[in-house]
Batch of 2 targets.
Target 1
Amino acid sequence: MKIDDAAARLEALGNPTRLKIYRTLVRAGRAGMPVGRLQERLKIPASTLSHHVKALVSVGLISQVREGTTLVCHAEYDTMRGLVDFLVAECCAEEKQCKEAQTAA
Amino acid sequence: MKIDDAAARLEALGNPTRLKIYRTLVRAGRAGMPVGRLQERLKIPASTLSHHVKALVSVGLISQVREGTTLVCHAEYDTMRGLVDFLVAECCAEEKQCKEAQTAA
DNA sequence: CCGATTATTCGCCAATTCTAGAAGGATAGG
DNA sequence: CCTATCCTTCTAGAATTGGCGAATAATCGG
C-alpha cells in the first residue's frame, strides 16, 4: 500500500464518528447493515451519517450494495487487513521491536 | 484502548506529512532522530515540522528527549502496538475474517 | 554575559472539515 | 401515476487544520 493511501485510510478512521460506524459494520459481519439501521444505532442525522459513510466508501474501507430502497453497507476486510499490514511493516522496519505483530505480517 | 484514543491516534497518523515523520522515526530505531535531522530529511519548514511533531507527541505515538540543544524524537512502539491490536480486535470482532492478523493479537 | 545553534510558539491566512436542516433522486407498492 | 420510504446532495455556517515566516525560548561554549 502506498503511504498516501494508508494516510487517507487512517484519516478516514481517525474521526470518532466514522470509527464507530466502521466498528458497527465490522460487528454486523458479512450480512452488513443498511444506512438507516446505522442511523438508529448511532443516533446521527441522516445527512451527517451519509457524509461519513461516503468518506469510508471513498477510501475503500466499506462498500455498499443496494437492496430495494435500502443501501446495505459492508466492511471491506481486505482493505483493513492491508492497512494493518502496512502499519505492522512500518512499525517493525529495521528494528524488530514489535515481535508479536511481526509474526502476523 | 478507548475508541476515542484510537481515533485520535489514527487521526494523527492520517496526515501524509505526519505519517512520513512517524515512519522516519520508526526507521531511525531506538537511537531516534533529532528534529533538525527530520527537517533536512523531509524538507519541511521548522515551524510546520514542530507543529506536526507536537501532534504526534500529544497522542503518545512519539516521545522527545533533550540532549543539549537538540531534541531527539523516538517512536513509541508500545503505543503503535496498542493501536494495531485495537484495529485487529475491531477488524475481527464476531467474524473471523482476518486470520493472519488475528494470530498476532 | 554573548553569540551560536536548535527548536518552539505566535500570528496570520487559506483551505478543509464537521454538522445538520432542507431539498432532491431512487425504488417499490398499489 | 402517486405516495411512501430510504438515502444522498445541496447549502451554509462554525470550527478546525495545515502551512509558514517571524519572533521567542532553551541550551551550550567561551
Note: The first strand of chain A starts at residue 33 and ends at 34.
Target 2
Amino acid sequence: MSSAEAISGIKKQEDTNNALEQVQQLVETYPRVPITVDCVIFGFDNNELKVLLIRSDLEMFDGKWTLLGDFAHDDEELDDAAYRVLRERTGMRDVYLEQVKTFSKPHRHPGGRVITVAYCSLLNTEHHALNILDNELHWHTVKTACNMAFDHKEILDVCYKWLQKRMLEHPLGLNLLPEKFSLRELQNLYEAILDIKLDRRNFRKKFFSMDFLIDTGEYEDDVHHRPGRLYRFDFDKYSQNKKKWTGIEF
Amino acid sequence: MSSAEAISGIKKQEDTNNALEQVQQLVETYPRVPITVDCVIFGFDNNELKVLLIRSDLEMFDGKWTLLGDFAHDDEELDDAAYRVLRERTGMRDVYLEQVKTFSKPHRHPGGRVITVAYCSLLNTEHHALNILDNELHWHTVKTACNMAFDHKEILDVCYKWLQKRMLEHPLGLNLLPEKFSLRELQNLYEAILDIKLDRRNFRKKFFSMDFLIDTGEYEDDVHHRPGRLYRFDFDKYSQNKKKWTGIEF
DNA sequence: CCAAAAGTGTTGCGGTTACACCCATGA
DNA sequence: TCATGGGTGTAACCGCAACACTTTTGG
C-alpha cells in the first residue's frame, strides 16, 4: 500500500466514522414509541375455535381479558419477541407463528401511546394443556369472546378474518390438530373456522387428491362408533409442491 | 344522590385516577423505539412496473436509493403517517395504500434501532408526473432496482410479492392505470406484474364476465393502429359484489 | 396495400358439486 | 340389533385453456 493510499484509507475511515455519527445523532432525534407484540393464539377443542386469553393485570381493566403480549426487548426482532411470549406464557416451542398487522391508533392504550404488532399462532390444545403455568390463562370460544381490554377485540377480529382467508391457501390449520387425525376431525376444523358446511365425500376427494395426507395405518380408538383412519400431513412434500398461481378472481 | 353514594362516587373517581396513573407509569417504563413508515410506491409506465425512489440524504448511503419514508409523529396513526409521506413527497391525495409488513431486524438501520412499517401504494404515473417536487425522486424499474440503502431492497421484494398475490384477488392494480383504459393496457399490466403471458381472448372473457368494466364508448386516439375501446372500472359495483369464498387450494 | 393490433366463438378437459348406499364398530 | 359415523362412485355442470380468422385503422 502506498502512503497516498494509506492516507486515503485513513481519510475514508474518518469519513465513515463521521457519517456513522451523523446517522446515529439523527436517529437520536427521532420520536420514540413503546412497541409491544400481541399473540393471538388459536386452539381447536370440542369442535370450536378457541383463543387463549389472560386476565388483565391492570387495575383499570379489572376483569377484562387480553391477548398475550409483551414489550419488545432492546435489540430483539419482533418475530423473536412473539416467540418469546409464546414460550414464556405457554411453555411451547416450535409453534406456528406469523405476523399479521400493526395497530397504532394513538389512544389504543390508556397509558399513552403504544404501538403493537399482532401475531397469529396456532397450536394443538392437547399438547398445550400440560404446559399452562398461569391459571389466569383461559381458552375462550372465538365467536363469543368479548369483554376485552385495549383494542384487543379488534385485533382478534382481524386475526380471525386473516385465519379464515389463510386457511384456504395454506395448510396452517393443521397445526391446530394432533399429529395424527381423522378426516372427520379435519373437516370439522374447516367447517368450524370457516363457518360453513362441506360435503363429506367431496372434502375427502379434495384432500386425497392434493396427496399430502399420509395414512398411518392406525385408527381412532376413543370413539363410540366405527373408528376412522388416522393420517399425518406431509409438510415436507407440501413445501416442495405449493401451488403458485390460482388465476385472477375477484 | 345519597351522601354514601356521593362518597362512593368520589372513591371510584379516585380509584380511576389511581389506576390511570398506574398504567401511565407502567408505560413510562417501557423501552421505546423510533418508528418509521416506508412507502413502496408503484407506478406503471412503458409496460413496466416502476417504483418511486429517492436518493438517500445520508452521507454514508451516498448514491444509494431509498423508499419514501418518515418518522411517525406523536399521536399519528401509522396509516396517516403513510398518507402524509405520500402527500408531502408526491403531492398526491386519495392514493391507494395498504399496510404490508413491519420490519424490525435490530441492525437494519445503521444509526441504531429503528422499526419500520412498510406500506404499499399504487398510483397512476401520468397524473403523478405533474406533482413531483423533488428532483432526486426517480421512477425505477422494479425488476432491476438495486443499490438500495438499509433493508429497502428486502422491503421492496416483499411488497412486490405481496402485490403479485394481491392482484389475483383484488382489483387494486387498476389504480396503476388511467381512469379510462383499453383492455390491452389492462392485460399488459397483469402480464408485466405477474410476469406471465395471458391469452388475449380468455383475458377479455374473464374481465367481461366479472362485469365490472364500464364501456365509455370512447376509443384510444394516440395509437398507430386500430384503436381499442376505453373502459372504466366500476369500483362501487365491485365493493358490493366481492367474492367471499374460493375454495381450499394449496 | 401493408402492418399492427382489435375484436370475436367453439371445443375439450378437468375440477366441483350434488347426491345415496353399504360397512364397521360399540353399546 | 341399533345407532353412529366411516367409507365409497357417478353424473351433470361450469369454468378454464387452447386455438385462428376477420376487421379496423394509420402509414
Note: The mean pLDDT of chain A is 91.
